[in-house]
Amino acid sequence: MFGIGALELLVIVVLVLALLLGLRLLLRR
Questions:
Q1: DSSP string, 2-21
Q2: What are the residue ranges spanned by the domains of the chain?
Q3: Residue 11 to residue 3: CA distance in whole angstroms
Q4: CA pair distance 29, 23, nearest whole angstrom
Q5: Which conformational region is residue 10 in: left (phi greater than 0), alpha (psi within -120 to 50 degrees), or beta?
Q6: Which residue windows are transmembrane per the record (predicted)?
């Protein structure tokens, strides 16, 4: 397993959510 801490995991989740929101905005246009 990877040595990922809670902070790194939280950052990854935030980045993924930001990418999904960005894709939704681009698809709406």
A1: ----HHHHHHHHHHHHHHHH
A2: 1-29
A3: 14
A4: 10
A5: alpha
A6: 6-27
Place of tokens 């709406």: 28
Token pair recorded at residue 16: 């993924």
Range 1-29 burial, b when 16+ CB lie within 10 A, else e: eeeeeeeeeeeeeeeeeeeeeeeeeeeee
Q: Which token pair is 29?
A: 């246009």
pTM: 0.62
CA dist., res. 6 & res. 21, Å (int)? 23
For residue 14, what pLDDT band results from cuts at 50, 70 and 90?
Answer: very high
* Token pair for 3: 């040595």
